[in-house]
UniProtKB/TrEMBL annotation:
Protein name: Sigma-70 family RNA polymerase sigma factor
Domain RNA polymerase sigma-70 region positions: 12-71
Single annotated GO MF: sigma factor activity
Domain annotation RNA polymerase sigma factor 70 region 4 type: ranges: 102-150
UniProt entry keywords in alphabetical sequence: Sigma factor, Transcription, Transcription regulation
GO process annotations (BP): DNA-templated transcription initiation
Organism from which the protein derives: Novosphingobium umbonatum
Family: Belongs to the sigma-70 factor family. ECF subfamily.
NCBIfam families listed in its UniProt record: sigma70-ECF
């Protein structure tokens, strides 16, 4: 029996029979997996017909693969990839963003407290001019002037930085 497993003709014959039972492209992989199963099985058991064992094991391997493939669709794969994807920013992006935030903080610190408060209410809290005016008890025109003042100052601040 051991000599049979060393014979190339034996392996060609087994592979040909496996190709009849499983997809042609998967036959060699199935045969390889079947051989591993045969090897493990023979440690504790006697095998009378290596060829029959290999063919049956190869079919089982192919069936198992088909079942796994049916359960694991492309959609499942895409979902797993999305779960594994790291959406956190890269280190250099974090550093650059922190530097920009520090720069903006310096700029906003130069505004008067009232102008800064109104600008932040508009830009950070997404409040409309009318809403800001109502909350602070000032006119909508005053809010517009504070926003314009902040925008002009920030624009000039940015030009100084770029120069």
């Amino acid at each position: 029996m051991e000599e049979e497993l060393r014979d190339k003709r034996f392996w060609r014959r087994v592979l040909t029979k496996i190709r009849r039972n499983v997809h042609h492209d998967d036959a060699e992989d199935a045969l390889h997996s079947a051989f591993l199963r045969l090897h493990r099985y023979r440690r504790d058991h006697c095998v009378d017909d290596n060829e029959a064992f290999l063919i049956r094991a190869a079919r089982n391997v192919a069936i198992d693969g088909f079942r796994r493939q049916e359960r694991f669709t492309q959609k499942d794969f895409d979902e797993i990839c999305l779960e594994l994807a790291d959406s956190s920013p890269l280190q250099d992006e974090v550093f650059e963003t922190r530097a920009r935030l520090h720069y903006i903080q310096q700029c906003l610190d130069q505004l008067t407290p009232r102008t800064r408060q109104i600008f932040e209410m508009h830009r950070l809290d997404n409040l409309k001019y009318r809403e800001i005016a109502e909350r602070l008890g000032i006119s909508q025109s005053a809010v517009e002037k504070h926003i314009a003042k902040a925008a002009l100052f920030i624009g000039q601040w940015a030009k100084k930085r770029d120069a």
